[in-house]
């Protein structure tokens, strides 16, 4: 996991005819760990947008409410990982009730 690095900016996934983005806006106060998140997901026939907040700690990201990709998973927890020279956000599957 990649800890203590800024999430600010756009994180995107793309597949054939669909994709999603999470855009993180860091808080004005450095000690505040909550940031605003704009979530967008789309496919060839439409899309949706949602607003969230998130808290980041030690490479783990927790959204205040789950998000659902238009043709994909539903998730609330993510982790920031390094793959070679690139940083990626990976969602974590939740166990059912």
Low-confidence stretches: none
Q: Tell me the strand order in the biggest sheet.
A: 1-2-3-4-5-6-7
Oligomeric state of this protein: single chain
Structural class: mainly beta
Number of helices: 0
Number of strands: 7
How would a textbook summarize the main sheet? 7 strands, antiparallel
Using the alpha-carbon principal axes, give the shape.
globular
Q: Beta-strand percentage?
A: over 45%
Rounded radius of gyration (Å)? 13 Å
Mean pLDDT: 86
Measured as a percent range, the helix fraction is: under 10%
What is the succession of H and E elements?
A: EEEEEEE
Report how far the terminal alpha carbons are from each other.
Answer: 27 Å
Short description:
This protein has 97 residues and is an all-beta fold.
Protein model, in words:
The protein has no helices and seven strands. It is mostly beta strands. Strands 1-2-3-4-5-6-7 form a seven-stranded antiparallel β-sheet, with no helix packed on it. The radius of gyration is 13 Å and the shape is globular. 12% of the residues are buried.
Considering the chains and any ligands shown, give keywords for the structure.
97 residues; mainly beta; 7-stranded antiparallel beta sheet
Secondary structure: elements and pairs:
Elements: E1 9-15, E2 18-25, E3 34-43, E4 46-57, E5 60-68, E6 74-83, E7 86-92
Antiparallel strand pairs: 1-2, 2-3, 3-4, 4-5, 5-6, 6-7
């Amino acid at each position: 996991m990649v800890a203590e690095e800024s999430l600010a900016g756009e994180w995107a996934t793309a597949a054939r005819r669909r994709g999603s983005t999470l855009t993180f806006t860091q808080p004005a106060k450095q000690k505040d760990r909550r940031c605003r998140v704009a979530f967008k997901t789309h496919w060839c026939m439409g899309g949706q947008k949602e607003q969230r907040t998130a808290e980041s700690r030690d490479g783990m990201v927790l959204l205040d409410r789950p998000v659902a990709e238009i043709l994909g998973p539903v998730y609330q927890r993510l982790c920031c990982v390094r793959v070679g020279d690139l940083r990626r956000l990976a969602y974590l599957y939740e166990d059912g009730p």
